[in-house]
Amino acid sequence: LIEKIKQKGAEKVEYLPFGFDPDIHYPVKVSDEERKKYAHDVTFIGNWSPEREDYLRDLLEFDLGIWGEKYWKRLCKDKILKRRWQKKAVYGIEQSKVLNSSKIALNILRAQNKNSHNMRTFELPACGVFVISERSPEIEDFFKEDEEIVLFSSKQELKEKIKYYLKNEERRKEIAYKGFQRCIESDYTYKARVKKI
Questions:
Q1: Distance between CA 41 and CA 169 in Å, rounded?
Q2: Best CA proximity match to 190, nearest among 2, 46, 16
Q3: Of 12, 55, 111, 169, which is most buried with the most CB atoms under 10 A?
Q4: Rounded to an integer, what distance in angstroms lies between the CA atom of residue 172 and that of residue 168?
Q5: What SS3 state is found at 91?
């Protein structure tokens, strides 16, 4: 958005990536009771957008859980997909519990973040979970593909990778651990972002 902001008249615009807060984004232990409440093979945490609905509609064959604000109820056109919405948004420790109860955490960028990244780019791996994210040049700069994160560029690629990684638990755990380590070693925290400011 830097060029758009400059076009609106801002004289000095600096690029500062999103990050994560280690006080609320970290791997948590999940009880059996919590796992029953939160567990899904594929979890998406985020608000509704047309692009997100389009991608998620194609994943109805999977055990899919969607967590987000009431926009899903109001704006989602697909009635079957709408039933996958868990009727609430999750934040902080509850967000990490949802993620740590799931096999795959999914990150789909909004239109304004295409070719860039979003908050989930860092929050998901910081929680120690396996992430499949929409591909972008910036995300490829932050994480090593197929080592620290798995990326997709199309619905077909996304489905194929979900099928593959649901069958390969050890590989999922390995990538999740390395993604978490990258967040820590590269200090993708908001504290580090503030230091840069």
A1: 11
A2: 16
A3: 55
A4: 6
A5: coil
**What does the pLDDT profile of the chain (197 residues) look like in tens digits?**
889 999 999 999 999 999 999 999 999 999 999 999 999 999 999 999 999 999 999 999 999 999 999 999 999 999 999 999 999 999 999 999 999 999 999 999 999 898 899 999 999 999 999 999 999 999 999 999 999 999 999 999 999 999 999 999 999 999 999 999 999 999 999 999 999 99
Residue 131, SS3?
strand
Q: Quick one: angle between helices 155-166 and 50-57, nearest 10?
A: 50
Q: Which position has the token pair 């390969």?
A: 168
Nearest to 27 by CA among 104, 93, 121, 89: 93
Q: How many C-beta atoms lie closer than 10 Å to residue 58's C-beta?
A: 15
Instruction: Please report the beta strands in the chain, taking only residues with DSSP state E, as ranges in sequence order.
Output: 42-45, 64-67, 104-107, 131-134, 150-152
d(CA 37, CA 166): 20
- Which among 48, 92, 91, 93 has a CA at the least distance from the CA of 66? 48
DSSP annotation of 112:
G
Write the burial class of residue 197 (CB in 10 Å: 0-12 exposed, 13-18 middle, 19+ buried): exposed
